Automatic annotation (TrEMBL):
This is Kynureninase. GO terms for molecular function: kynureninase activity. Pyridoxal 5'-phosphate binds at residues 85-86, 113-116, 155, 184, 187, 209, 239, 265. Homodimer. It catalyses: 3-hydroxy-L-kynurenine + H2O = 3-hydroxyanthranilate + L-alanine + H(+); L-kynurenine + H2O = anthranilate + L-alanine + H(+). It is an enzyme of class 3 (hydrolase). Catalyzes the cleavage of L-kynurenine (L-Kyn) and L-3-hydroxykynurenine (L-3OHKyn) into anthranilic acid (AA) and 3-hydroxyanthranilic acid (3-OHAA), respectively. Belongs to the kynureninase family.
Length: 397
């Protein structure tokens, strides 16, 4: 049975703070400090370079990939961790294009995270082979999929509104048109049930510092459908994706299976922290987590709308059509969010006017949600946001 009180106790949550920004950066698991200390003091310190063998550092990318794979419905040996999400997006798109050499268009939507679009556009430009990136409204994706599309690249949950794509329906349409399907799970892995095997997705990528709580800068992951992996040529032919890295061959030979999608040296300390963070999911039913997430978000929407008529719901009204976040539009949204943070309720802001709140049942409670709604309504009702300090833009919003 899923016990959310027990899972909350796993996190180091500052006293007096209501944290509703786990969709941007998850809080620190209490075990992270000891795990990092152990890796530094008990492994790196005494073992030095022998830690790659003695402590099993070289195996971490695959081990963590399998742990994440369990949360996204991917079979063992089909997911690997390392590098950044941007690099994993680049790998997926480049591989997809090689699998469909006669097609020239990558399809995405304007709700995709901009970094994904930047990486795809940069790759297509560097190829210089007449490829183009077609960007449509999220609602227009299905109709835009046809036989001209080489790859469809989408983020399952819109980072601004929380709008949720139908992963199975879109993947089926992409395959029916002969296109490769790439999913970015940055805002859904660890937040809702995903079954990549059932939907037959070709590639999936994601970060681990949001709902997976791996810490700032935690490495990304990539999944490749098992029957495709031996056809995939890694565009970024990194040393650790080589079939025999320590043979030091001058010619690249891709490694077996998902290991070929490795690129750079594993960030061992960060991976150790991520390994500790994933322990929080060991006794968690993703279906139960999803049900509680909807309960939290529904209460927040209800109480904010009841107490504050000046805001507009940006997220889908239907909870089944959104991820684990809720966004409201307010003309002075940035200042209002800064005022809210000053009161100990942390969400975030997305330009031009959207206040964004993430809900994670691993540590968020119904009482916190009600408190956050009350504070937000009070700030807007009293113009508590109208202070110069709250209007000064910071580097990270």
């Amino acid at each position: 049975m899923t016990d959310f009180e027990a899972s909350r106790a796993r996190f180091d949550l500052p006293e007096g703070v209501t944290y509703l920004d786990g969709n941007s950066l998850g809080p620190m698991p209490k075990s992270a400090v000891e795990r990092a200390r152990q890796t530094i003091a008990d492994e790196w310190g005494p073992m030095l370079i022998t830690g790659w063998n003695k402590a099993g550092w070289m195996n971490l990318p695959g081990q963590l990939g399998d742990r994440i794979g369990r949360l996204i419905g991917a079979p063992a040996g089909s997911t690997v961790v390392g590098d950044t999400l941007s690099i994993k997006v680049y790998q997926a798109v480049a591989s997809a294009l090689e699998l469909r050499p006669s097609r020239k268009t990558v399809l995405s939507d304007n709700g995709n995270f901009p970094s994904d679009l930047y990486m795809a556009d940069g790759l297509l430009r560097s190829l210089g082979q007449g490829h183009d990136l077609k960007v449509v409204d999220p609602e227009a994706v299905l109709d835009a999929i046809d036989e001209s599309i080489a790859a469809v690249m989408l983020t399952q949950v819109d980072y601004r509104s929380g709008r949720l794509h139908d992963i199975k329906k879109i993947t089926e349409k992409a395959h029916a048109a002969g296109a490769i399907m790439i999913w970015d799970l940055a805002h859904s892995a660890g937040a809702l049930p995903i079954d990549l095997t059932a939907c037959n997705a070709d590639f999936a990528v994601g970060c681990t510092y949001k709902y997976l709580n791996g810490g700032p800068g935690a490495p990304a992951f990539i999944h490749v459908r098992p029957d495709l992996i031996d056809q995939v040529r890694p565009a970024l032919s990194g040393w650790l994706g080589h079939a025999a890295p320590f043979a030091f061959d001058l010619d690249y030979r891709p490694g077996d299976g998902i290991s070929r999608m490795r690129v750079g040296t594993p960030p061992v300390i960060q991976m150790a922290v991520l390994d500790a963070a994933l322990d929080a999911f060991d006794d968690i039913s993703m279906e139960a987590l999803r049900a509680r997430s909807i309960e939290l978000s529904e209460r927040f929407i209800s109480e904010v709308e009841a107490g504050c008529k000046q805001v507009e719901l940006v997220s889908p009204r239907d909870p089944q059509a959104r991820g684990s976040q809720v966004s409201f539009r307010f003309a002075e949204g940035y200042a209002a969010m800064q005022a809210l943070i000053a009161r100990g309720v942390i969400g975030d802001f997305r330009a031009p006017d959207t206040m964004r709140f993430g809900f994670c049942p691993l540590y968020n409670t119904l009482e916190e949600v009600s408190h956050a709604a009350a504070e937000l309504c009070d700030i807007i009702a009293t113009d508590g946001w109208d202070k110069p300090a709250f209007k000064t833009r910071k580097a990270v919003t």
